[in-house]
């Protein structure tokens, strides 16, 4: 779910950058970009830690079986 949120936010940012380049301007205030980038960063950190925890759990479970 967090990956989908990241993709959605990144697509919004790309769309806004393209519309700005094409001369249509943007509809978002700058603080909203900062909020979206913060959400992407936090989601990335959570996903990274979550994958590390899964690796640790799998390693502990494999040691119990031996």
Number of strands: 0
Q: Note the gap between the termini.
A: 35 Å
Radius of gyration: 18 Å
Based on secondary structure, the structural category is mainly alpha
What order do the SSEs take from the amino end to the carboxyl end, as H and E?
Answer: HH
Total of domains: 1
Task: Work out the helix count.
Answer: 2
Strand content: under 5%
The chain-level mean pLDDT equals: 80
Largest sheet: none
* Overall outline: rod-shaped
Percentage of residues in helical conformation: over 70%
Low-confidence stretches: none
What is the fold's blueprint, element by element?
Blueprint: H1 2-21, H2 30-65
Helix pairs in contact: 1-2
Salient structural properties:
66 residues; 2 helices; mainly alpha
Task: Briefly say what this structure is.
The protein has two helices and no strands. With 66 residues, the protein is mostly helical.
Could you please describe the fold and organization of this structure?
- The protein is mainly alpha-helical and 66 residues long.
- The protein has one domain (2-65).
- Helix content is 85%, strand content 0%.
- It has helices at 2-21, 30-65.
- Helix 1 (2-21) runs antiparallel to helix 2.
- The two termini are 35 Å apart.
């Amino acid at each position: 779910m967090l990956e989908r949120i990241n993709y959605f936010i990144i697509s919004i940012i790309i769309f806004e950058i393209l519309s700005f380049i094409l001369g249509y301007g943007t509809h978002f205030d700058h603080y909203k970009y900062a909020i979206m980038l913060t959400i992407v960063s936090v989601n990335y950190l959570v996903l990274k830690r979550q994958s590390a925890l899964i690796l640790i759990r799998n390693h502990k479970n494999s040691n119990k079986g031996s």
